[in-house]
Design brief:
heterodimer, B: alpha+beta, three-stranded antiparallel β-sheet, globular
Chain lengths: 322, 370
């Protein structure tokens, strides 16, 4: 019992530490990759090839004062960044990084992840509303509508995978892909729907409407500075990571891969390779496409993604039944 | 938002700019919004007023050449071109053929640089960050050549009374030829990255449609007018400064939406490359500046001249009282007419479309204020 408690404590600490490390790596990757997509070098000054740029920026943001606008709801304004971090952090405790590297293996892991992630919207809305700024408010409104619209297709395709695996436990879903990953095993369509909806879910371009900088200056982030801003950024990168982790678990076979020594632990390498490859795609998309318009975004979700996801679910159910 | 506002209908008043990423300088738009949609718009101008016209009245005729490239910072050479042609017409100065060709080369290079800047900024307005860096990469080449020709990178002091300030050497000719080759290949990249991009087409097709009548009624000129299907380019309608000797087409759009204005500008860059190529082909020798009097004093009367700038019709109109300073100089800049379309256009538009339409008009705000 005590050992179990200790294990939980250590692993939760590790997960939290990982979240910050991931944000640092992703921030650096994004800037470096963006630089190379744009025929420039990206960060080069701090450390070898600018590798220390993100820690330095982090320290800078920590040292800055977080300015709270006079017209803002002070308490909620300060609370929103904190609230934004927790829903993206919690899902990590059920993600199976390898056969044993998992904090807890919940029977309803998939539902837990999806349920917790839905809370992220509240933080964005809280931020936009408490700022009491019109740009932030429009950003918050967009965020709520967008997240509701795009959670449904994610839920529907995840359900299709759960049907095929016969379990909501993420570890079970990964195990059931030992022979064939779901992305090639009937769920390619679901995977594509998941990717598009996932991009939108973590407010990444081309669906970054809540913070569309050419329209809303910075949307719900307009008045945030210092630690508040950096917490939102960390939350965004963690959210990306969670979305990619879930995609890896559901469609890309999780930690499944060629046999390695100490399989129980080392297969996490495959997991991370897959998840970061997906994140590379997300960054690539962001720096290539223009932003869609708000009504086009909604139309796309309700008229295409949701019906197709429904059909996908029905066909999957039929196939599983047969 | 606040208690005073009607939360049920969600009408609000929004100040867009003058500090806003998409107003390209210091334009302020006072918006009446209904949630995401724009009900009405009131552009506020004057933040970049620099009294150029008044300045002209206080100094010798020739001294105003220093002001001309500063009126429109993105495409200044046509302004100098226009002023020079007007003065030469007033003083009846014959400009050497080499100077005429050099003026055209410089103006067209400037037009390409300006259109490249626009493409990048427009895509930035639509939320695509990458194209602007490709555009600046290309624009850099054009600006380098202009720097070599004129001595300056942005406000080129090139046009002067009776010709241009400097000749070009063989190296510049080679560089310009290399630039033409490079740009032709770069258009394929833009085609793939931008023109054929699904989201780009979704965001621009049918957005901000300006009917031909409306464009004419509001005094729109340049690519905005041509995007609406009217083939009106001063270089062909009323050729000036030797443009009648060049073969080029005037691209026009069909629907008058943002996509058409984009296509017109892309095609104009290709045509400008053609013009430069032709000019280099038959670049005449000889002096680059005519003999001009030290003190220019046009006989009393009114003079005017129009040229095609990157944004449209640039017209200078001057009144001389016979002294060595203008009595009055009036500049007609294209952006004012183009901007005046916006309040009518944007009614009922989504905020994102307003930004796209605003971007597609290619406004240089200080040029409106002067």
């Amino acid at each position: 019992m005590e050992i179990e408690a200790l294990r939980l404590l250590v692993s939760v600490t590790l997960v939290t530490a990982f979240v910050f490390a991931n944000a640092t790596v992703m921030g650096y990757l994004e800037r470096k990759l963006a630089g190379h997509f744009q025929r420039r070098l990206g960060p080069m000054e701090v450390g070898w090839h600018g590798i220390l740029q993100m820690p330095v920026d982090g320290i800078k943001l920590l040292a800055k004062r977080m300015v709270v606008p006079v017209q803002a709801e002070g308490l909620l304004f300060r609370l929103a960044p904190v609230i934004s971090l927790s829903p993206v952090l919690l899902p990590l405790i059920v993600i199976p990084f390898s056969p044993v590297l998992q904090v807890v293996d919940m029977q309803v892991g998939l539902i837990f992840v999806l349920a917790i992630e839905a809370f992220g919207t509240i933080a964005v809305f809280l931020a936009g509303w408490s700022t009491n700024n019109k740009y932030a408010m429009i950003g918050a409104m967009r965020s709520v509508a967008q997240n509701i619209a795009y959670e449904i297709p994610i839920l529907l395709v995840a359900l299709a995978v759960a049907l095929m695996a016969g379990s909501f436990s993420l570890q079970e879903i990964v195990r059931s892909q030992a022979k064939l990953w779901y992305v090639v095993n009937f769920q390619l369509f679901g995977f594509l729907i998941y990717l598009v909806a996932g991009l939108s879910e973590c407010n990444r371009a081309p669906f970054d409407l809540p913070e569309a900088e050419s329209e809303l200056t910075a949307g719900y982030l307009t008045e945030y500075s210092g630690i508040g801003f950096s917490l939102f950024m960390i939350a965004e990168y963690t959210h990306m990571f969670t979305i990619c982790c879930l995609a890896t678990v559901l469609f890309l076979g999780g930690w499944q891969g060629p046999e390695l020594p100490w399989q129980a632990y080392s297969s996490a390498i495959w997991f991370f390779m897959k998840a970061y490859a997906l994140m590379f795609v997300m960054i690539w998309v962001r720096w290539t496409f223009p932003r869609v318009r708000y009504d086009q975004l909604m139309k796309f979700a309700w008229k295409y993604l949701i019906p197709f996801a429904l059909v996908n679910l029905l066909v999957t159910a039929l196939v599983v039944y047969l | 938002m606040n208690g005073s506002q009607d939360t049920r209908t969600f009408r609000m008043h929004l100040n867009l700019g003058p500090q806003h990423p998409s107003t390209h300088g210091v334009l302020q738009l006072e918006l009446e919004m209904y949630g995401e949609y724009v009900l009405g718009i009131d552009p506020v101008l004057g933040y970049g007023h620099r009294m150029h016209e008044k300045m002209a009245e206080q100094r010798p005729w020739q001294a105003f050449f220093a002001n001309t490239p500063r009126i429109d910072y993105a495409c200044g050479l046509p302004h100098g071109h226009c002023y020079a042609l007007m003065l030469e017409q007033a003083l009846q100065i014959e400009v050497p053929p080499r100077a005429l060709a050099l003026r055209i080369i410089a103006s067209e290079l400037n037009r390409i640089a300006s259109h490249l800047l626009w493409v990048g900024a427009f895509l930035l307005d639509l939320g695509a960050f990458t194209p602007i860096l490709y555009c600046f990469d290309d624009r850099e080449q054009a600006v380098d050549i202009l720097e070599h020709m004129t001595g300056s990178r942005l406000t080129h002091p090139y046009m002067c009374l009776g010709g241009v300030t400097g000749d070009i050497d063989e190296e510049t000719v080679v560089n310009i030829r290399a630039f033409i080759r490079r740009m032709r290949s770069r258009f394929q990249i833009y085609e793939r990255l931008v023109t054929n991009n699904v989201i780009f087409i979704m965001r621009t097709r049918g957005v901000g449609v300006i009917a031909a009548d409306m464009a004419r009624a509001y005094g729109a000129t340049g690519p905005v007018l041509r995007g609406s299907g009217l083939s009106c380019d001063i270089r062909t309608v009323a050729p000036y400064g030797g443009y009648d000797g060049y073969a080029f087409e005037v691209p026009t759009g069909e629907r008058g939406d943002c996509l058409d204005r984009y296509r017109v500008r892309m095609e104009e860059m290709r045509q400008s490359l053609n013009i430069i190529g032709q000019a280099l082909e038959r670049l005449p020798g000889g002096p680059v500046r005519a003999e001009v009097p030290r003190k220019a004093a046009p006989p009393p009367g009114q003079y005017s001249c129009s040229v095609e700038g990157a944004r449209g019709d640039v017209t200078y109109w001057a009144v001389s009282d016979g002294s060595d300073t203008p009595y009055r100089l009036k500049i007609r800049s294209p952006c004012m007419g183009n901007l005046s379309l916006l309040p009518k256009l944007c009614r009922g538009m989504a905020l994102a479309d307003l930004i796209a339409t605003l971007g597609s008009l290619d406004l240089v705000i200080p040029e409106i204020d002067r």
